[in-house]
Amino acid sequence: MMKKIFSLILSFAVLMVVTVCLSSCTDDGTRVSFTAQSYRTDPQPITDRFPSLGQPEQVYWKQHTFGSGLAACIGPTSYRLTGFAITDVVQSLSNKKFTDAGVIDYPDGIGPDITGFTQFDWRKYPDFTAELLGNHYIGTVLVDVQKRLVYFDVENL
């Protein structure tokens, strides 16, 4: 009798864990909602992740963490970095191969009031993007060489 009660309790506990995970995750295994920090201006986390940026004059970034918290999905934790860096490194790109990025708006929280710029000449530099992201990140990297501005919206792999 005790063995049967223990088995029922264990089955109920497993069912509850599976229900919480399934109700918190989308079909692709990511969390439905994510925890987000405020925008930060400390350069060290960005220069650690992206040494190709050199020593930026200014950074403004936010990290969104997926798969964390009490309702975490089973699997590795991923995060997304969004922000910009002002750095002299991009001035060497002026003669490199690029494609126009078209009209791109900043995401919420990164606008002219933060950067001090109202117009941009966004370009995509495939070689710079590949070097910056390496094998650890995927996403969008845009550069305005004249303003020494690098915009990033990337996710770790």
Please provide a written account of the structure.
- The chain is of the alpha+beta class.
- It has one domain.
- It has 4 helices and 7 strands, in the order H-E-H-E-E-E-H-E-H-E-E.
- It has helices at residues 2-24, 44-49, 112-115, 126-133, and strands at 35-36, 58-66, 78-86, 99-100, 123-124, 137-144, 149-156.
- The strands form 2 sheets. Strands 1-2-3-7-6 form a 5-stranded antiparallel β-sheet, with no helix packed on it. A two-stranded antiparallel sheet has the order 4-5.
- The longest helix has 23 residues, at 2-24.
- The chain is elongated, with a radius of gyration of 21 Å.
- The chain starts with a helix and ends with a strand.
- 19% of the residues are buried.
- Residues 14-36 have low confidence and may be disordered.
Main-sheet strand order equals 1-2-3-7-6
| Residues in helix, % | 25-40%
- The ordered H/E elements are HEHEEEHEHEE
Q: Detail the poorly predicted runs.
A: 14-36
